[in-house]
Design a protein that fits this description.
single chain; alpha+beta; Heat Shock Protein 90; 2 domains; five-stranded antiparallel sheet; five-stranded mixed sheet; elongated
Amino acid sequence: MQDVLEHMPTALCVVDPSGHVEFANARARQLLERPLDHVEIGAVLAPLAILNDPGSTSLDVALPSGRTATFGYAVRAIGTADAPRHIVTFQDITQLRALRDERDRLLKLAAVGSTLPTILHGLKNPLAAITVAVEVMSEELTDPEVREQLLAVLAEIRRMRLVLEGVTAIGQSVHGYGRHAIDKTVREAVAILGVRAESCGVHLRSAIEPIEPLPFVPAVISAIVFNLTVNALQACRSGDTIRIHARSDDGEFELAVSDTGQGMPADVYQRCTELFFTTKRTGSGIGLALCRQLAERAGGTLEIVSVPGFGTAITVRLPHQAPAA
């Protein structure tokens, strides 16, 4: 029987009341990367057997190789009341959990993409009407003080519209019908964001090269500029600098946003494009995830370089032509 247990495809261990592992089959030793007599096997498995928490079925384990694995496990008591023992069976579910997390991320993105645009569309229509009304009033009124106040209101309305475009781009496509002056689109977004940067004490510098009309949706490009710049602003302190560079070359549009802010530690860098992941109290965790989705769906790329203490540089590259369906 022991020979059968030894060669089972499922990892199996027998733990005595003191936490000593009496038996660990070959699969268990392989997964744990430890021999049977290694004291850490007991340290890993004994808590599972002793606590037998019905609400927990998985455990993250740091392995000698440096890898952290997720084990799904089950515990069953055997023996007598005077000499209880526990059988622990487990398997490596690290890849399964990664697939589950990716599924959950896509479901969240789909939920946001299906509901948020509808809600925000109801805000954009009255906002457009207000914009027209304020523009007409600012042109007709002659009082310079009132006109200046109306222009300030108009600037805030345009900023709100840019914010809405930054969110409603979820589920949209970069490529559209007709060609548009994308360099003008980027300049307008930068001008609006410059006011916000100035209020934070951050220097916003831009180098927007002349770009031929491209078959892009202007609102989606505005959304990318907005989200990347806001992400940079949130990482900056007063006195820091953000640089925005846009150009077109070899059939590809390139937008680069770099900052001299705090940079990202390794754990944040690994997850920064996950939907709803944020380390900021007021962050939504949508911006970088949205930019990555837009770039990849357009057949492009989003590249991130970040050095803690020195800043972050994000580059989005989009092909002029949409990928074949």
